[in-house]
Amino acid sequence: xxxxxxxxxxxxxxxxxxxxxxxxxxxxxxxxxxxxxxxxxxxxxxxxxxxxxxxxxxxxxxxxxxxxxxxxxxxxxxxxxxxxxxxxxxxxxxxxxxxxxxxxxxxxxxxxxxxxxxxxxxxxxxxxxxxxxxxxxxxxxxxxxxxxxxxxxxxxxxxxxxxxxxxxxxxxxxxxxxxxxxxxxxxxxxxxxxxxxxxxxxxxxxxxxxxxxxxxxxxxxxxxxxxxxxxxxxxxxxx
Length: 239
Known about the structure:
Elements: H1 2-53, E1 65-68, E2 74-81, H2 89-106, E3 112-120, E4 123-130, H3 133-140, E5 144-148, H4 149-154, E6 163-167, E7 170-175, H5 177-180, E8 187-191, E9 196-198, E10 203-207, E11 211-215, E12 218-221, E13 234-238
Parallel strand pairs: 1-9
Antiparallel strand pairs: 1-2, 2-4, 3-4, 5-8, 6-7, 6-10, 8-13, 9-12, 10-13, 11-12
């Protein structure tokens, strides 16, 4: 009987060891799966971050657009046609790179980056990034001022114009300048260029002449006359 109990005890011990070994194996496999899942998440996150920083997620516009970003940077998407026999895409890219390089070398503060250059048939898409609206103005010669209404008034902007009220991405009646800039804490853009302007918010008022609302955050400015160089001062108030 004693010998039988001893054998039974040994069998129970073997079974316990086997269960513990199996449990440890399952735990190790579980930890390995968690580790692999974590590595995959980190890898995907790194790829997404790299793509975001590289501008891969920037939605391309279908016409030349100036985008004002929350961080104060300005992105310009220029869409142009190569309609001169002597002017090709390679020459254009070289010219732009040289102009940017020369500006960055001579500028004490403002910096510009070429983010994308693409050619499809005879259409060129160029995206450049500027560290501020002032840098954009300095480089292109087009006046662009950004900030709050109060900031721009301090800079001498008068906002003297007839305004359109904007609701749900459409013009909806008119307003005076006094009405448009009543809230001096709202954001504003003052620009002298025929281009689409996209702001980081919803447009509430826009100066009425030569403007079209493309979306709740986008205003298209058209030329004032048949002269393609003719521009008007456009004011955009948004929040």
